[in-house]
Design brief:
Length: 639
């Protein structure tokens, strides 16, 4: 009888012991993560960005939340370490990270790390490894990724690695995305056989030989910049004999062309004597202040061109008064600015309206017929939120696009230009009106240009003009098909998107990303600094900054201090901020469509309509419909 009574007692004691031991393990584990991160930080240089890592803290995580910069948590454990663009250097102490048993994402993009490839195989549970845009060098040993069976995404682009692709990287069983772009790697490309493989970007390296079958259906852009690659998706490989035959044939053809050129030159010299025509200067070489006499000197050269519309303006709208190119050249001119595409001039026609003339030189992506057809198509577009194309001038060396002059300037000038003392900034109702108009104009472009993946392609605040009533007018839209490809990828906004930055591709949602950045610029008053950099977008952009402010602590710091008329409108402003961030979603599949964004924007009002979005709106309200936690949303925006 006594023994039977002792059994339940013993069971209770044992259960309590297990619970105490489990609690002890949790505390020990959490404390271990704190010390692991502090030890990792100690191996870094210039780690001021990690100043809020607290060595006295029991744990860096509180459930799914954390105050530690660059750290994301899941179920009380460190899940991601994302230290992108923090100016860090020093060593990557992988041994200290081995104590983070739940670590699945390690990202150190855009820092100053150097030296050989770290011993990442000591973190076999990693799913994503991103080391882009650092200064790592050396070859990557074949066994560097052994045992990393969970690894799905590897980004090593923008470093100084050389040598062949390591076998352990090729054999990763769950590999989905691999980027080795812009290194110095070379040799033959091994075949990749992973079933889920979507991207292997080897552009701008020194690979040679035939592209293997497993990569033959990849985008050709993934292999550009390797001079000695061939086979699908590039041009077919040629045998040595065939190449020799072609080389000899080309040499013979060149000799023949040289002989013909000499004969023709002699005939031409005999006909013209010793006189030579002066080279054309062409329209656009003039600047404000040039005299009529200097401008008129160009006209005879233009007329000698002859042919269809040569030397003439081609009008694409029937509701505009016609004028001649000579009238335009003789008009008083004012330089409005010079951008990445060329110069802009305001020309005041005698007895007529002022027009803007934009000069383009990097606009030869299509031939003459294709250019005429595309310009006429753009000229047929008409919408209250588009600045219509009036006429154009075609010449192989340069093109002129002519539109009406808009007096109130660009949105960029109102947001960022230095105002005179006492001059107010744009108020909230005006900013809301502008973004609604921009969205309507963009929707119209999507509808009328269904064949273009980038109906706008260059949506930014300097390409949004404002009339006297602050109605927005989109400009520089639909130009991607005619702009030289390399120039477009260097300067146009769409090519700074996350999808082009990582995969060299754009989609119908890329303009939505540009819209999201524009929304954030309008509501914060901050200029997207990465737009000023040539080539692909910077790792840190306006969306990253907004996300960091919201994640750290929700305050009014995110809103432009110059924005007036915000009383009783904070809730609506929060809604617009959320819309902008959902449009900036780096994952294209999760990014809002233009239709969804427009529907949400149309619902916005100048004043809060209910108590749910009062000025005390919480951090959770901002993310309620798209992410369960702030960390979830942070991951998607800043990837």
């Amino acid at each position: 009888m006594t023994m039977e009574r002792e059994k339940p007692h013993r069971f209770v004691v044992a259960a309590l012991a297990v619970l105490v031991l489990a609690a002890h393990n949790v505390v020990t584990c959490s404390a271990g993560e704190t010390q692991s991160l502090i030890r990792f930080k100690g191996s870094l240089s210039n780690a001021t960005a990690l100043s809020n890592w607290d060595s006295s803290s029991d744990s860096p995580c509180n459930g799914n939340k954390t105050d530690w910069a660059g750290v994301s948590c899941l179920n009380g454990n460190v899940w991601q370490l994302r230290l992108d663009g923090m100016g860090l250097g020093g060593l990557i102490d992988v041994d200290s990270l081995t104590q983070l048993s739940s670590l699945r994402v390690l990202s150190i993009k855009g820092n100053g790390f150097e030296g050989p490839m770290p011993e990442v195989k000591k973190l076999p549970a990693l799913k994503m490894l991103m080391m882009s845009s650092n200064q790592f060098t050396g070859d990557i040993p074949d066994d560097k990724f052994d045992g990393m069976k969970a690894l799905r995404m590897v980004y090593l682009d923008g470093n100084g690695f050389f040598g062949p692709i390591p076998k352990s990287l090729v054999n990763l069983p769950r590999l989905v995305n691999l980027s080795l772009e812009a290194n110095q790697m070379g040799g033959k490309i091994p075949d990749f056989r992973q079933m889920e493989l979507q991207m292997v970007n080897l552009a701008n390296n020194q690979f040679e030989g035939k592209i293997p079958p497993g990569l033959s259906k990849m985008s050709p852009s993934y292999f550009k910049g390797n001079k000695h690659l061939c086979g699908k998706p590039l041009s077919p490989c040629k045998s040595f004999k065939k190449m020799l035959f072609i080389t000899v044939g080309v040499a013979v053809a060149l000799v023949a062309l040289v002989v013909i050129g000499i004969v023709m030159y002699r005939k031409k010299s005999n006909f013209h004597g010793t006189h030579h025509l002066k080279p054309e200067r062409g329209f656009g070489a003039y600047d404000a202040g040039l005299r009529d006499a200097q401008i008129n000197d160009q006209q005879p050269q233009m007329k000698k061109r002859g042919g269809d519309h040569q030397g003439k303006l081609v009008f694409v709208r029937s509701d505009r008064e016609r004028f001649e190119l000579q009238d335009l050249l003789r008009a008083s001119a004012e330089v409005l600015g010079s951008g990445s595409f060329g110069s802009s001039y305001k020309a005041a026609l005698l007895g007529g309206p002022a027009v803007v003339v934009r000069r383009f030189r990097q606009m030869n992506n299509v031939g003459k017929e294709g250019f005429y057809e595309h310009m006429r198509r753009l000229g047929s577009l008409s919408h209250p939120n588009l600045l219509s194309l009036v006429a154009f001038f075609y010449r192989k060396e340069e093109k002129l696009l002519i539109s009406d002059f808009v007096e109130n300037g660009s949105l960029a000038s109102h947001l960022h230009a230095n105002r005179s003392p006492g001059q107010p900034g744009l108020d909230w109702p005006t900013r809301l009106k502008i973004i609604k108009g921009v969205t309507k104009g963009l929707e119209y472009l999507y509808k009328e240009l269904p064949g273009l993946s980038l109906p706008h392609g260059h949506l930014k605040s300097s390409n949004v003009l404002l009339d006297r009533n602050f109605t927005p007018l989109l400009t520089d839209y639909g130009l991607v098909p005619v702009i030289n490809k390399d120039h477009a990828q260097q300067f146009m906004v769409a090519f700074k998107s996350p999808e082009f930055n990582h995969s060299d591709c754009t989609t119908r949602k890329t303009d939505v990303w540009s819209l999201g950045i524009l929304i954030l610029e309008i509501i914060t008053g901050k200029f997207p600094a990465n737009y000023l950099k040539q080539g692909k977008g910077a790792n840190a952009d306006l969306a990253t900054w907004v996300n960091s402010v919201v994640r750290e602590e929700w305050t009014g710091e995110v809103f432009d201090k110059d924005m007036r008329g915000t009383k009783n409108g904070e809730g609506e402003m929060l809604k617009l901020l959320k819309i902008g961030m959902c449009c900036c979603e780096w994952n294209v599949e999760r990014r809002w469509s233009l239709r969804e964004a427009m529907d949400r924007i149309e619902e916005l009002r100048e004043r809060d309509s209910d108590e749910e979005y009062s000025s005390s709106a919480s951090e959770g309200d901002l993310y309620s419909s798209r992410a369960t936690t702030v960390e979830d949303f942070s991951f998607s925006v800043t990837h």
